[in-house]
Amino acid sequence: MKEFMKTKTVTYNLMSFTGFKALYFFSLLLEAPRSYEEINEAFMQHEFIKESISIDTFRVYLTSLKRAGCEIIKTRRVEGGKYKMLSHPFQLKITDDQVKSLVKIYKMISKNIEVDELVILDNFLQKLTTMLDNEKLVEAYETTTAFKGVDKSLTMELYKHCRKKSQITILYNSPRNGQKKFQVITDKVGFSNGKLYLYGTGLDYKQYTYFPVGRILKVLSVSLKKSEVEDIKTYKVGYELSSNSASARLCDEEAIKEIKDDNTVVVEYVSSNLFMIKQKILSYGSSCKVLYPEFVKDEILQTLNSMKAGYLNGKA
Amino acid sequence: MARLSEKYNDSVIKMFKLLTLLLHGEADFKDVIEIFADENDGVIQNSHVILNKYLNTLKIFCIKITKQKNKYYLLNMPFNVDFTEDDVRAVEILKASAPLMPAGKVRKNLLNFIKDIEIRYDEKARVASNEFAGKSYIDLSFYFAKCRDQILECEKFCADKQKLEIIYLSNGEETSIIASPKEVKYFNRRICFSVYSQFNDQLTEIPIDNIKSIKQLPIVTKNSSHTTSVVFALKNRLAKSYKLKDGEYSNGFDKDGNLIVANDAEDLDMLIARLMRYGENCTILSPKFLRDRMLDVISKCIENYD
Questions:
Q1: pTM score, whole prediction
Q2: How many Cβ atoms are within 10 Å of B130's Cβ, its own excluded?
Q3: Disulfide-capable partner of A98 in A313, B26, B113, B272 (CB 3.0 to 4.6 Å)?
Q4: Which chain A residues are Cβ-neighbours of B11 within 8 angstroms?
Q5: Does A48 sit within 8 Å of B295, measured CB to CB?
């Protein structure tokens, strides 16, 4: 062995020279489709092998590789008449059970990792779908991906802007008004009800707002200097909530102000977007009661009465 | 005499058999040596010498193999897959989150697949893997701080596929349900046990920390389950901008311009909470019991302000 390594001359007693040549033959076909002439040339040029291969021996190697589990075809003459490896025993494969496990873990962690990590994970799974040629994996990926209808590179671009809290101008495809430009001081990219949103302070309406990422066409520009946004009106809304609902469902903008003895908590939601606050209050259902300010209490009550009327009048 | 096209070389077959065996990650010495036993009488006297020749061959081909306690381990593959640094990071994320799964078949399947990937790393990916190892921060503390045992128990129920009698807290009141286990669902800071009740064709997602007790019944669950379809109408701007979610479909707008949506995949309590957000822009059309339940929730909300 030492002698082999030193002189690069094959000592047949210490290794299987045929096995070595077979591995080399296999690796050549793995790289690209090859003709007999190309393989013969490669054998002669190899620093250890340094000898030609007859066409008969070449065929024996081909048959041996096929028997070992390789699928090799000869391409048509117009395609060069080369030998092409379609599959082999060392290919990365995934079983149906492994697909299930992969999907399960993706679902588990997609809500708990940063968006940039989720993009990386999703890209990897997408790569596996093209690499592994497994229909179940393709189907599972298509139904599970968190980025259905969303451009992942745009998501990453928005995420990076959010990290820097950049002020950007986006081109947004509004369902009502068509394409429209918006200026936003970016805050975060995150999921709500399974949909991906860009959150930030919208300078057009001077309030904290959110845009479905699927409707953002592109980032048109990034402002070098952030605009002063002093005149943004902020709302502080307080409400009583059963503590059972509170611990699990509070968002970043909600803070527990008081824990009461009767299993309820007082929560305060501070935001410039009253619409978001009202939506959150309504989602809590009957376990929530608005305490202040009075006008929000009135608006919520008005909405509830209007919802009730809709049901009682039997209208859609 | 075999025709030339049928002739093959036994060394090639043995070499590939050895590699295929090693590819499983670890191989028992007795299985490895068997490859090199005499074909006619199975004698393995000289097989050790032959095996060494083959191992030397693999070594020269830069395939690293190590032997520990009568087992051979393949450390790398000569035929690598082009994995980028981001791919390696994705693998590290998967590895770091594996403890979320119960110790059993599901986790083992994932770890085996990760092993299959890692063995195909090239040098660049291997360096990246060493660099990223243990650095992927996935906060599992919320799940494991108080729910680990419940998670594992529910995962086991899912695997057993037997009907369950579950007692849990719903709106502060103890509720009982007989249902088939579906899956454990992970939300942001919340874990639910998703079960299907054939009694009312409903999926229920029970927050795992609201479960008081679970009793396994001696009845195997059926694979097929048909959930209740909930049909609701969306109005005004929402009708135009609404994006259908998983398990939802729509045949379009009614004569008043309302978008009619059917949903058959969401837990009804969660669906009600979501539809409440839409305020007067949403009305449940069917089934009647859910329309009534929604009306009841709205009425109770109003009563809060009496």
A1: 0.75
A2: 10
A3: B113
A4: 16, 18-19, 22
A5: no
